[in-house]
Amino acid sequence: MKELALKYGCNPNQKPSRIFMKDGELPIEVLNGKPGYINFLDALNSWQLVKELKEATGLPAAASFKHVSPAGAAVAVEMSETLKKIYFVDDVQLTPLATAYARARGADRMSSYGDFIALSDTCDKETAILINREVSDGVIAPDYTPEALEILKNKRKGTYNVVKIDPNYKPAPVEHKDVFGITFEQGRNELKIDESLFKSFPTKNQTIPSDARRDLLIALITLKYTQSNSVCYAKDGQAIGIGAGQQSRIHCTRLAGNKADIWYLRQHPKVMNLPFKQGIRRADRDNTIDVYISEDHDDVLADGTWELFFSEKPEVLTREEKRDWLNTLSGVSLGSDAFFPFGDNIERAHKSGVQFIAQPGGSVRDDNVIETCDKYDIAMAFTEIRLFHH
Fold this sequence. Notes:
The chain is α/β, with parallel strands linked by helices. The protein has three domains: 3-165, 3-Layer(aba) Sandwich (Cytidine Deaminase, domain 2); 193-265 and 326-382, 3-Layer(aba) Sandwich (Cytidine Deaminase, domain 2), CATH 3.40.140.20; 275-313. It has helices at 37-57, 81-86, 96-106, 109-112, 125-133, 146-153, 210-224, 249-265, 269-272, 282-293, 297-301, 319-326, 344-351, 366-375, and strands spanning 3-5, 18-20, 28-32, 61-66, 69-75, 115-119, 136-141, 161-165, 174-179, 182-187, 230-235, 238-244, 332-336, 354-359, 379-382. The strands form four sheets. The protein has a six-stranded mixed sheet. A five-stranded mixed sheet has the order 12-11-13-14-15, with helices on both faces. Strands 1-2 form a two-stranded antiparallel sheet.
């Protein structure tokens, strides 16, 4: 098949719409549903991400994509019971691929609502069961077991988008796109991201353990497919905070850091023990937890409101308790798709437990950035590579 007609483009008024190959056959097969323009943008970007994560780490990988940027990305690192609980997967069997998906989906559940999923390996029954429980638009994978495909075909009243991609497909080395009737041409970003990037250490602390190196690879590969400017925090085999598409790097760092903080605060005992009523949907739990953690917690604890969600009124999680809890977060790795222009980014990263950084370097204020890293004994590698993605 050389082309596939789509319902419409980015918006309903943008017709006609299709995907097609100028030469050869499309490397994808739609096994169920009718994916749209944005679905395929998410699918093809996310597939590249998980394929590279698998190649870089040797572990099954998964990604959760929304509007052409990842909401989450992860590899198959065994989870603690705490993470299983906050990701709502403590009641099911987890294969390595299901573990990767649970991590990718669980990092930022608010952003992952209605996502497109990418899997590096053949989708198994256990992963399909998890996908079936969540609200999403579709999934792309190199293959599906018969049991997994049957589960997914029945999702969303039979309309769920299931895409199979040829894992051996290699695109042309030069890519094109049209903007305002003008064709842009560039070489594909075939840059290989591996541990060879971690050679130049301008900081006093030059020690990055193997787990942190893995997490830095996850952060950098994630950034390669994130709309720029972008910053990614990673820990224990997964992205825990992604700041995408900001005009200022400090805003990327703050946005990603705030998401990492929420990820960690969800593990606070008060949050884990919130007395939710039986039958509250996962999406409503996610929204309620997000408000409870935020400075607007009074909204969910107000008289007449808490009764909608809780069997009894929860205790307030104070600002001091949150800060004390966040002070215990450590071992976080951070990647940036371009250099940090000022040390304020490091100051913000430190507040979210960052101890390891990989960034291109090359700012006229590198000395200030290095000095700030040394202030907190942060190990930083200059990769000398930029990872802009547009």
